[in-house]
TrEMBL record:
<dbReference type="InterPro" id="IPR004045">
    <property type="entry name" value="Glutathione_S-Trfase_N"/>
</dbReference>
<dbReference type="InterPro" id="IPR040079">
    <property type="entry name" value="Glutathione_S-Trfase"/>
</dbReference>
<keyword id="KW-0808">Transferase</keyword>
<dbReference type="Pfam" id="PF00043">
    <property type="entry name" value="GST_C"/>
</dbReference>
<feature type="domain" description="GST N-terminal">
    <location>
        <begin position="2"/>
        <end position="85"/>
    </location>
</feature>
<dbReference type="InterPro" id="IPR036282">
    <property type="entry name" value="Glutathione-S-Trfase_C_sf"/>
</dbReference>
<protein>
    <submittedName>
        <fullName>Glutathione S-transferase</fullName>
    </submittedName>
</protein>
<dbReference type="Pfam" id="PF13409">
    <property type="entry name" value="GST_N_2"/>
</dbReference>
<dbReference type="InterPro" id="IPR010987">
    <property type="entry name" value="Glutathione-S-Trfase_C-like"/>
</dbReference>
<dbReference type="GO" id="GO:0016740">
    <property type="term" value="F:transferase activity"/>
</dbReference>
<feature type="domain" description="GST C-terminal">
    <location>
        <begin position="91"/>
        <end position="207"/>
    </location>
</feature>
<dbReference type="InterPro" id="IPR004046">
    <property type="entry name" value="GST_C"/>
</dbReference>
<dbReference type="InterPro" id="IPR036249">
    <property type="entry name" value="Thioredoxin-like_sf"/>
</dbReference>
Length: 207
């Protein structure tokens, strides 16, 4: 790949997933921080001119093309550095399992957090969302009981996405210590150099 990639991000948001993936893949990239409330980049530009939806992540190419939606972005990144093994080869059974996990994390875990982060969500709705999220996390904990990563022994971009969404639990009163397999997973993935570098860059851990 010859052109530089630009990742539009907000610290700790789901854009952390492709940020980590870019570092794991060792691809050249630049970061542009976005104020999601104002829909502005750190230089004051209207972010909606880049991504009309106004949300991150958004991966922009040197020719102006953009790719949005985390599961699509992280697969693109993985495919640019196949030697890193961040995703199974296209067309294999394992690749479809990867896509299965990315979709599950996106629709069943990531989106379950949404009402919990909104200040105008009713308490009843928050209780429902928290119960639903707990059920989904119990399933993942069960799946990780006998293997280190979602695809078995192989670390993938699905694990990066899961790591990011699990890290949000602390902000919505969900105690992950009730699932030792999930806390062990967080420690395992969180100790990776690329993950630590991304967290430091976004100001999520001390340098």
């Amino acid at each position: 790949m010859n052109d530089m990639l630009t990742l539009y991000y907000s610290p700790g948001a789901c854009s952390l997933s492709p940020h980590i993936a870019l570092r794991e893949a060792e691809l050249p990239f630049v970061l542009v921080r976005v104020d999601l409330a104002k829909k502005q980049t750190e230089t004051g530009e209207d972010f909606r001119k880049v991504n009309p939806t106004g949300y991150v992540p958004c991966l922009q190419f040197a020719d102006g093309r953009t790719l949005t939606e985390g599961p699509a972005i992280v697969q693109y990144i993985a495919d640019q550095a196949p030697e890193k093994g961040l995703a199974p080869a296209n067309g294999t059974w394992e690749r479809y399992l990867l896509q299965q996990w990315l979709n599950f994390i996106s629709t069943e875990i990531h989106k379950s957090y949404s009402p919990l982060f909104k200040p105008n969500t009713s308490q009843d709705h928050k209780n429902f969302a928290r119960d639903l999220l707990t059920t989904r996390l119990e399933y993942v904990a069960h799946e990780l009981a006998n293997r280190p990563y979602l695809l078995g022994e192989r670390f993938s971009v699905a694990d990066i996405y899961l790591f990011v969404t699990l890290s949000w639990a602390q902000y919505v009163a969900i105690d992950l210590t009730q699932w030792p397999t999930l806390t062990q997973f967080l420690t395992r993935v969180g100790s990776r150099p690329a993950v630590q570098a991304a967290l430091r860059t976004e100001g999520l851990v001390k340098s």
